[in-house]
Amino acid sequence: MKVNIFNQSDYASVDKKRINSLIRKVVKGEGFQLANLNIVITDNNYLKKLNKMFFKKNRPTNVISFNMDEVCEIYVSRDKVKDTKDLYYYIIHGLLHIIGYDHRNKEEVKIMENKCLKYLEYIK
């Protein structure tokens, strides 16, 4: 598995080694196969464009992810990130979407929230 991290923002607290380790723990924990993953840290404007183009929602969001089989991508809005823990949370959240989780109802919301918090515990 190859993980590429692109920081297109002024967010300085991007620990690529820690993010890479976290991604591997989530993928292994979920029994998922992943060839290539791009993580892009950008801003609200970029996520707003993606949200409008792919989901017909004309507003920014915290994270958007795409599973394109060979290459998966997670886009995180730097503007929504309060601290490093938030960044990791959004990355986990995006990865869970790639794996197949969603949050269309309260039960799914709870499952995703619990998984995100569980995997956040791996961050030391």
Nutshell version of this structure?
It is built from four helices and four strands. The chain has 124 residues and is of the alpha/beta class.
What does this structure look like?
The structure is a single chain. With 124 residues, the chain is α/β, with parallel strands linked by helices. The protein has a single domain (2-120), classed as Metalloproteases ("zincins"), catalytic domain (Collagenase (Catalytic Domain)). The protein is built from four helices and four strands, in the order E-H-E-H-E-E-H-H. The protein has helices spanning 16-29, 44-55, 84-99, 106-120, and strands at residues 2-7, 36-42, 63-68, 71-77. The protein has a four-stranded mixed β-sheet with strand order 1-2-4-3, sandwiched between helices. A hairpin with a 2-residue loop joins strand 3 and strand 4. Helix 1 packs parallel to helix 3. It is globular and about 35 Å long. The mean pLDDT is 94.
How much of the residues is beta strand, in percent? 15-25%
Structural class: alpha/beta
What is the ordering of alpha helices and beta strands?
EHEHEEHH
User: What would you call the quaternary organization?
Assistant: single chain
For the record, the CATH architecture stands as: 3-Layer(aba) Sandwich
**Tally of individual helices:** 4
CATH homologous superfamily annotation:
Metalloproteases ("zincins"), catalytic domain
Radius of gyration: 14 Å
Largest sheet: 4 strands, mixed
| Low-pLDDT regions | none
CATH topology: Collagenase (Catalytic Domain)
Distance between the termini: 22 Å
Global shape: globular
Q: Which strand order spans the largest sheet, edge to edge or round the barrel? A: 1-2-4-3
Number of strands: 4
Can you tell me the number of structural domains?
Answer: 1
> For the residues shown, what is the average pLDDT?
94
CATH class category name: Alpha Beta
Proportion of residues in helical segments:
40-55%
